[in-house]
Design brief:
about 85% helix, de novo design (two linked rop proteins), mainly alpha, 5 helices
Length: about 120
């Protein structure tokens, strides 16, 4: 049963990350032009790298998943920082910032659970 739940968590990340990316692309399109092509590009690259990692997760051996999950978690951390910078500089408003952070938080909870699970069960 535990194995099934982890598989479900990995799969739940896909629609959650898709919804998050769609939302953030809309947000990035509305930030000032100069920032859209600098911080916006970095943000998009980080999101796409994260999505690629999530998609890759179910394709790799179980013993290699811990490392991949940590990379996904690192990408989420980068996005949190970039989001704070965008909010601090008033390129996005507080409401968009808080909603995006809530989406990141949802994914972060799942990632954290997977880190614990694979970290504990991957003592190789």
């Amino acid at each position: 049963m535990e194995k099934l739940n982890k598989k479900e968590n990995e799969l739940t990340l896909i629609p959650k990350s898709e919804r998050y990316i769609e939302y953030m692309l809309e947000v990035i399109l509305k930030i000032p032009r100069t920032e859209k092509f600098s911080i916006g590009t970095e943000y998009k690259n980080s999101m796409y790298k994260m999505l690629e990692g999530i998609m890759y997760l179910n394709k790799i051996e179980i013993k290699d998943r811990f490392k991949s999950i940590n990379k996904i978690d690192a990408d989420l951390s980068v996005q949190r920082i970039l989001l704070r910078i965008m909010c601090k500089n008033a390129w996005i408003d507080k409401k968009k910032f808080e909603y995006a952070m809530s989406l990141i938080y949802e994914m972060g909870k799942i990632i954290g659970g997977l880190v614990k699970y694979y970290g504990k069960n991957n003592k190789a």
